[in-house]
Amino acid sequence: MDYTQKMLRDDALKGKSIVVTGGGSGLGKAMTRYFMELGAKVAITSRNLEKLQNTAKELEEETGGKCIAVQCDVRNYDEVEAMRDAVIDQFGSVDVLLNNAAGNFISPTERLSANAFDTIIDIVLKGSKNCTLAFGKHWIDKKEKDKTVLNIVTTYAWTGSAYVVPSATAKAGVLAMTRSLAVEWAKYGIRSNAIAPGPFPTKGAWDRLLPGDLKDKFDLSKKVPLKRVGEHQELANLAAYLVSDFSAYVNGEVITIDGGEWLKGAGQFNLLEAIPEELWDQLEAMIKAKKGS
Ligand code: COA
């Protein structure tokens, strides 16, 4: 099976302009590349302008599409408004906001300073709120319709997860915002959806979160029923669908793309997967023998 194939037809996003926060690297970059291949103009934002400019140039050369780099720390509302206005200046309008920028510290919670906790909440929850509010207010004020907000969350937004508590707390808030605004802003022609990705390795985040040989010790693909991690194109396919007109009736949804990972941890008897066939034979024989007695 080739799950790295590109899903949508050429020009599926032609005419759309898209803002991807945290678009300079990792999954944001992968989604940006595919949006450009499908004909969209994309603005990528982060704190690191040089990295953004390099990515924009690389992707323009690779795809022949249009990508601009706009510096913005999503934690500061003034910077977010300035970023929005700069993108609108260049593109005329914006159709899609992809809240992808994130930060995460893997740590026992009691070891985190109050400022460390705030840092993650500020990037993930406040940053997504800042961007959503800035673009939403503009669209509503200008009576522009057919807009989409797509938020990248995580499956532990609803299960919670030990050792990433600030991230779990913030992503749960982003998910609540997604569902709330899906209803409240539908009347303005603004859809809100989310994607909850499982393990999709990226160099930056994974090296930082699981440094050294921790990556091998905690091989996350072993936790996935499909026994593999995700390919970036698989996520890009889903994101492209959710920002395209093909998903015009999808609103307030969070789509999990994790190979079944979170459910594996949830089902009461899922750990019986460890039982080999011979043992099942023995167990069946024992149960049948008991029935007969
Ligand atoms: N574990 C625990 N605490 C940490 C930490 C870590 N790995 N790294 C920094 N902190 C603490 C700092 O000590 C500081 O707290 P203090 O003032 O009480 O000492 C606080 O967090 C803020 O640190 P600072 O370095 O000023 O943060 P920053 O705003 O410059 O950068 C990030 C924070 C998250 C943006 C940065 O680490 C980063 O770029 N991460 C990459 C993005 C990422 O994490 N991606 C994963 C996506 S899931």
TrEMBL record:
On the tree of life, the source organism's domain of life is: Bacteria
SUPFAM superfamilies per record: NAD(P)-binding Rossmann-fold domains
> Which GO BP terms apply?
fatty acid catabolic process
Recorded protein name is NAD(P)-dependent dehydrogenase, short-chain alcohol dehydrogenase family
Recorded hits in Pfam families, A to Z, give: adh_short_C2 (PF13561)
| Residues that span the membrane, as ranges | none
Q: Which family does it belong to?
A: Belongs to the short-chain dehydrogenases/reductases (SDR) family.
Q: Which InterPro entries match?
A: DECR2-like, NAD(P)-bd_dom_sf, SDR_fam
Q: Give the UniProt keywords, A-Z.
A: NADP, Oxidoreductase
Task: Give the organism the record lists.
Answer: Salegentibacter flavus
